[in-house]
Every structure is written in structure tokens, then in C-alpha cells.
Write a structure and sequence with these properties.
The protein is mainly alpha-helical. The chain has a domain at about 25-65. The protein contains 2 helices and no strands. Helix 1 packs antiparallel against helix 2 (about 45-75). It is elongated. The termini are far apart.
């Protein structure tokens, strides 16, 4: 049984600004979230806010490439 060969699309979008947005920006948000988690235990009264910011940053770092960008691409 032979399987079809998957050829590379000519319009793969690897050099587009959307690719940067879907890779670099979530990576920065993920690292920011980890940093906020680390700092949250040492800042006193601002600890809960820093911890919440870490949760939001990590949530966005996963939401941008998996849900937000595909929805925007389907609209266009």
C-alpha cells in the first residue's frame, strides 16, 4: 500500500510577520509568565497580582498560536 507524498506548499507563509507573531511573541509571553511566577513569592503585597499576571501571560502564550491566529486567518 502506497501513501501519498505530501509536497510542500508554495505559499507556506514561513517568512511572514504572522509567523513571527505566532512563534516569538508567545515565547516571550511564556518566559514573562515564568518570571512573574518566580517574582510573585517575593514581592509582598503585589504577590497575588504578579501571580495572576503570570497565569494570564502563560495562558495567552498558548492561546495565541492555537486559537487566536487560526481564527484570524480564517476570517481573511
Amino acid at each position: 500500500m502506497s501513501y501519498p507524498v505530501i509536497e510542500r506548499r508554495e505559499d507556506d507563509g514561513s517568512g511572514t510577520p504572522g509567523r513571527m507573531l505566532s512563534v516569538v511573541f508567545p515565547a516571550i509571553l511564556f518566559l514573562l509568565g515564568l518570571a512573574l511566577f518566580t517574582v510573585a513569592f517575593n514581592v509582598g503585597d503585589w504577590g497575588p497580582w504578579a501571580f495572576s499576571g503570570g497565569i494570564i501571560a502563560i495562558s495567552l502564550s498558548f492561546a495565541i498560536p492555537t486559537t487566536i491566529l487560526p481564527a484570524l486567518e480564517d476570517r481573511a
